[in-house]
Design a protein that fits this description.
The protein is mostly helical. Helix content is 71%, strand content 2%.
Length: 171
């Protein structure tokens, strides 16, 4: 009897163990299903958020295009080209004015070929001349004035700049 009873107990324990294993598998399957459902919901939320972000970006781009169109309506390419032409003309006139102001008076036109010939002749003389003491004076650099410039006046009593030219009074 004791052997039958232990078999019966062993059979009951086995049935109980099998039931627990079956329950464990059921719980694992439910856990796996819940994890998959949770993952699917996260993916759906991610997709929804991406679509919302895309819509926000597209709306911002549309607004940008609208504002750019509005701004471009106020800018006329013909006006810009006219302004550029006017600026170019004014710069050209300023150059002509500077050229006119820089014109020298009473100096003869010098031919470049004559200058080159004279320079070549001087070069030949320098090569033949062994005394170069005259270069010492030419190579000496003038000293830099120290202190602040003082107001200088010409013989008429007018203020002059460092070049001896009359100063323009400040307005």
């Amino acid at each position: 009897m004791s052997s039958g009873s232990s078999f019966h107990q062993y059979g009951a324990a086995t049935e109980k163990a099998l039931a627990l294993v079956q329950a464990n598998r059921t719980y694992e399957n439910q856990r796996d299903n819940l994890a998959q459902q949770s993952f699917n919901m996260e993916q759906a939320n991610y997709t929804i958020q991406s679509l919302k972000d895309t819509k926000t970006t597209v709306d911002a781009m549309k607004l940008g295009v609208k504002e750019m169109k509005k701004a471009y309506k106020q800018v006329k390419i013909d006006q810009i080209e006219d302004l550029q032409d006017q600026l170019e003309d004014m710069m050209e006139e300023a150059g002509e004015i500077q050229e006119a102001l820089g014109r020298s008076y009473g100096t003869p036109e010098i031919d470049e070929d004559d200058l080159e010939a004279e320079l070549e002749a001087l070069g030949d003389e320098l090569l033949a001349d062994e005394d170069s003491s005259y270069l010492d004076e030419a190579a000496s650099v003038p000293t830099i004035p120290e202190g602040t410039p003082t107001e200088s006046k010409n013989k008429d009593g007018a203020l002059v700049d460092e070049f001896g030219l009359p100063q323009i009074p400040a307005t």
